[in-house]
Design goal:
The complex is a heterodimer of chains A (390) and B (291). By secondary structure, chain A is of the alpha/beta class. Chain A has 17 helices and 9 strands. Helices cover 49% and strands 13% of the residues of chain A. Chain A is flat and about 75 Å long. Chain B has 2 domains: 162 residues, P-loop containing nucleotide triphosphate hydrolases (Rossmann fold, 3-Layer(aba) Sandwich); 84 residues. The longest helix of chain B is centred in the last third of the chain and has 15 residues. The N and C termini of chain B lie far apart (49 Å). Classes of the chains: A alpha/beta (390), B alpha/beta (291).
Chain lengths: 390, 291
């Protein structure tokens, strides 16, 4: 392949990839051009895998590349028709052979098999796709929230009286006294992190907030490894894996297809006990449990009370997000809310997850700083009660 | 062994890797080939147990060089990955040198390379040998975003800056293999600096070939049955963790050790724990009546 042709191919592929929204920068193009000089470009398979390696940096974009390459393969331009044809004839067959199994494998892995469907199957519904602007804003909010709620030691150190000997500052300090060490400094890890378990109510009474639910679910799951997301209505389903690996559109599709519990009744108590039973190992003292629900519960309050008590004893903090809490004059009156209230550290409205302003309202400096020991804070009334009065 | 790098083609790489008991498909061979030629890091993503880490191990054997491994985990810091001063030794030596040398000489002495503890990244830069070392940054998705950001300078320039010593440049650019299990999205910056490959479960043919290499004692008939069964298990979408190649190999080994000559529901039931390592998944498979 001549240099011109390679250049044309690379620029064309990158142009088309960008058109489809794949992030493909100049450095990718340079790599691709350099690598074309290193492989046997008459072999279409080689050419393809070489371009893909250099220009596509996400598994999700493999499909797009496949399409772009296919398009270019049949693109007829007088100058390179010969090469393309030559490659095309034997290449397409081979390519199909190579690519088919993978495509089929993907297909089947996405199909849901009928026997897994819950009994309370409802009509499948379309779910809104999380928007980018929301994700951007919520990323900042969630970052702050994790710091604010921190329970676990992070990466950075702070000086302290206990802990390991801090050699580097001990020595540095000793320079002032000509290397005579008068005081041994110590340091420990700053508490900056926490694990998150978010449990979202997707029952009928939350229908109006589906968009918010989807968006915050996605943003939460994408924020860190240490976040697990569950949804519940009449039963509890774990959705983190669906949210973590796919783009916003795909995850919305997958959840709409695989999680058939949207819009049914609520059994908070039994779902929470189910969570504790099944995923007890997932939570610890460093975990913050975030429950998003309006508290309309059709189950027995005793069950919810027991589940909440147990949850509280397992995790470091319990945050309850009630979509109605944003409204002025809100009082936690639903049975579920009243039962759960003694075990909640912070009761927030959904603005707390949506915007920085909302976050500050519920978690900001106006409130007393959250104590590091989660148990103590639960004896005080939840923060929102104070803010609702003002 | 320098010869390998000189007359390198993807095809020769497949053969060489097969000698080291690694079955590479064309995609993977091409990826490794380009990573070696372009001297760029290779980011391999994919399901656990599909031979991502193994690539680096095999490559280090092929190049007859050292494998320097950096296992990432939550909370890993730069000082654990790059370098740290050997403070206790520095302290002792300040005491010893106090009477003989001036303070300036002492500080020059204690902040020299002798007192530097080399962690994996620095060790890879300072490696001395005929061939570049293979640096494996394993499970980068487990580390925090901050650490990933810290890796960027290293991966782009192959250099690190130590305030007391200055910038240290790689003598030979190490061959860098980065793996990720996609528990967290790896950032665009890191992706941009690497070649990217996604590996998934192997085709039946490839898996048979792998078994033939890794568990040669297994009879071809049994190996065929093993592969067919594992491939069938992988079709079940509800499994929270599908068995990877390493599980297949474990299972084949177990069957061989037990002296099994053909697969029956009974011996599947007793050895299934090699393939499925999750209580819920085991129950699911039992409920489906496969066992």
């Amino acid at each position: 392949m001549s240099g011109d042709l390679a250049l044309f191919l690379v620029t064309e592929v990158s142009r088309r990839l960008r058109e489809y929204g794949v992030k493909c920068g100049t450095s990718e193009s340079i790599d691709a051009y350099r690598s074309l000089g290193l492989v046997d470009v008459n072999d279409v398979d080689d050419l393809k895998s070489c371009l893909r390696l250099c220009m596509v940096k996400r598994f999700e974009d493999y499909e797009v590349f496949e399409r772009v390459f296919e398009e270019l393969l049949y693109l007829k331009k007088p100058s390179e028709e010969r090469v393309r044809r030559e490659g095309g004839e034997d290449g397409v067959g081979a390519m199909k052979k190579v690519e088919k199994p993978r495509a089929e494998g993907n297909q089947s892995s996405r199909n849901i098999v009928a026997y897994y469907s819950p009994l309370e199957v409802l009509a499948r519904r379309e779910l809104p796709v999380p928007t980018l602007s929301f994700l951007r804003e919520s990323r900042r909010v969630l970052k702050r929230m994790r710091r604010r709620l921190a329970l676990l030691p992070g990466r950075r150190f702070e000086s302290s009286r206990t802990g390991l000997v801090d050699f580097s500052s001990t020595i540095r300090q000793s320079l002032a006294t000509h290397g005579e060490i008068l005081r041994i400094l110590r340091r420990r890890r700053k508490v900056t992190r926490c694990k998150f378990v978010a449990i979202f109510d997707v029952s009928g009474s939350m229908d109006a907030y589906t968009e918010f639910l989807m968006e915050s679910m996605y943003a939460l799951a994408r924020q860190s490894v240490a976040v697990e997301v569950f949804v519940f209505s009449t039963k509890l389903v774990r959705v983190s894996h669906l949210l973590k690996f796919f783009g916003p559109k795909k995850s919305a599709e997958l959840i709409a297809r695989d999680v058939n519990i949207w819009g049914s009744g609520t059994r908070i108590g039994s779902c929470l006990s189910n969570f504790i039973e099944k995923y007890r190992g997932m939570v610890g003292r460093g975990t913050v449990a975030l429950i998003v629900s309006d508290g309309w519960d059709t189950g027995e309050p005793e069950l919810l009370d027991r589940a909440m008590r147990e949850l509280k004893s397992l995790v470091g903090r319990v945050i309850w997000v009630n979509p109605h809490a944003d409204k002025p004059g809100f009082r936690p009156r639903t049975i579920g809310m009243e039962t759960a209230l003694p075990y909640i550290d912070v009761l927030a409205g959904m603005n707390a997850l949506k915007s920085l302003r909302g976050f500050i309202r519920y978690f900001g400096p106006a409130h007393q700083p959250l104590s590091r020991k989660g148990m103590q804070s639960s004896r005080r009334p939840p923060h929102v009660l104070r803010s609702a009065r003002t | 062994m320098l010869g390998l790098l000189e007359n390198l083609t993807p095809e020769s790489l497949v053969k060489a890797m097969e000698k080291e008991l690694y079955v590479a498909d064309e995609q993977l061979a091409m990826a490794v080939y380009l990573a070696l030629r372009l001297e760029k890091p290779l980011l391999i993503e994919g399901e656990p147990g599909c031979g991502k880490t193994e690539v680096a191990k095999v490559l280090s054997k092929l190049l007859n060089t050292e494998l320097i491994r950096l296992q990432c985990y939550e909370g890993i810091t730069a000082s654990q990955a790059l370098y740290e001063w050997d403070y206790p030794r520095q302290l002792i030596n300040i005491r010893l040198l106090e009477s003989v040398k001036t303070p300036d000489e002492i500080s020059a002495e204690i902040f020299s390379e002798k007192y530097l503890l080399r962690r994996p990244l620095l060790a890879a830069l300072l490696y001395e040998g005929p061939n570049p070392p293979v640096l494996l940054i394993d499970e980068v998705d487990r580390s925090d975003e901050e650490f990933e950001g810290f890796l960027l300078e290293f991966l782009a320039e192959f250099q690190v800056t130590i305030p007391e010593l200055g910038t240290i440049q790689a003598k030979k650019k190490p061959v860098v293999i980065i793996t990720s299990n996609r528990t967290r999205e790896v950032g665009d910056g890191l992706r941009r600096r690497c070649l990217y490959l996604y590996v998934t479960y192997p085709s039946p043919e490839k898996e048979k070939k792998i078994l033939a290499l890794k568990v040669p004692q297994l009879s071809p008939k049994l190996s065929e049955e093993v592969v067919a069964f594992v491939q069938r298990i992988r079709q079940i979408n509800e499994l929270s963790k599908k068995p990877g190649i390493s599980e297949t190999i474990d299972w084949a080994n177990a069957l061989h050790v037990l002296g099994v000559s053909e697969i029956t529901p009974n011996n599947i039931a007793t050895t299934l724990s090699c393939l499925i390592k999750n209580e819920d998944d085991l129950r699911l498979i039992r409920d489906l009546g496969i066992v």
